[in-house]
Amino acid sequence: MLKLSNKSIQFIKTTFNVTFIAIISIELLREAFLSIPYDWLFFLTSDAIENFVFVLMAYGLYYYVFKLNSIWKKIGFVVLFIFLLIGLASLKDFRIHNRIEFEQSFEYFTSFLGKLLLFYLGIYFINRLAFLNQYKKLKKELNQAKEQILRNQLHPHFLFNAFNSLYSLSLKNHPETSDYILKLSSMMRYLTDETHLRKVRLNREIDFIKKYIDIEKMRFGKDASIQLITDENVHGEVLIAPFLLIILVENAFKHGFYTNSKDAFVKIKVNIENDELFFFVENSIFKKQHFQESNREGKGLENLRQRLLLLYPKHSSIKITNTGETHTAQLKISLT
């Protein structure tokens, strides 16, 4: 939908009201100049007078009557306006037919009522543009708040796994425990400093994933089969919503390295083609492991799907494939 600035809305409102009133006023003056010297009754029942009265009523209803606190005052003004319309209809019927007939006067009355309603709706719509614009703004802010809540749900989950790994290393007096803490500190800084932003550079997300992979290599050994392949098109100018890709990477390690088998692997590819980001994650699955999708993992993937709907509606897709031996996740996001 078209989004208008407050300045544009004010310009449209002012232009409409000034133009509308100017046309009605010019028509009234022209009719007065031509009719008053010769036929007062014709002038009082002319289209110019009728339109002028309808405009006064429409503006009165919008700016005054419907803003009254008393319901009885509102009803009183509406009844008064109805009687004015009945009077104009009867006067027009008398001027044209030299008599007043109910059916003909009622026809004029309904015509006047329809024209009054049309004028009122025009004034109402123009003056509600700001509210429509505010509604769109509030809807956007609500979606951003929902997305931020979903994103924040992932941070404790990630830190829980990271500290579990740190605890495991410390029990073994692993020589690289200090390096682990250093990398984890750098990742936590990214979580606190940048993931609240709507968009971050893709290479920052990739750098975060690299640090995560380095930490996992400390856990499973440097000979662990872990690959991260990035296309040369992946550069710092590409922007993406933060903390999307890591969810699939985390799940891959839970699947692929659930057991410490030498055949375990995780393979990650990042590619950009025709302004579309392709993120591919494949990992091994072993029948001997009592693997079940836990509630935590299911929430992670569901969280990702909900965030994609909020951030990239109709511009993203995710496909999960499980063959029994391998688990594959393919994420596509349009960057335009």
What name is given to the CATH topology of the largest domain?
Heat Shock Protein 90
Mean of pLDDT = 80
Q: What general outline do the C-alpha atoms trace?
A: rod-shaped
Radius of gyration: 35 Å
Write the H/E string, N to C: HHHHHHHEHEEHEEHEE
CATH class of the largest domain, named Alpha Beta
The DSSP helix count reads 10
CATH architecture of the largest domain: 2-Layer Sandwich
Task: Specify the helix fraction band.
Answer: 55-70%
Structure classification:
alpha+beta
Please provide a written account of the structure.
With 336 residues, the chain is an alpha+beta fold. 63% of the residues lie in helices and 13% in strands. It has 2 domains: 6-127, no CATH class; 132-334, Heat Shock Protein 90 (2-Layer Sandwich), CATH 3.30.565. A 5-stranded mixed beta sheet has the order 2-4-5-7-6, with helices on one face. A two-stranded antiparallel ribbon has the order 1-3. Strand 4 (265-273) and strand 5 form a beta hairpin. Helix 6 packs antiparallel against helix 7 (177-193) and helix 8 (202-220) runs parallel beside helix 9 (245-256). The two termini are 17 Å apart. The model is unreliable at 289-297 (pLDDT under 50).
What are the salient characteristics of this protein?
10 helices, 336 residues, Heat Shock Protein 90, five-stranded mixed beta sheet, alpha+beta, 7 strands, 2 domains
Quick overview:
The protein is α+β, with helices and mostly antiparallel strands and 336 residues long. Helix content is 63%, strand content 13%. 21% of the residues are buried.
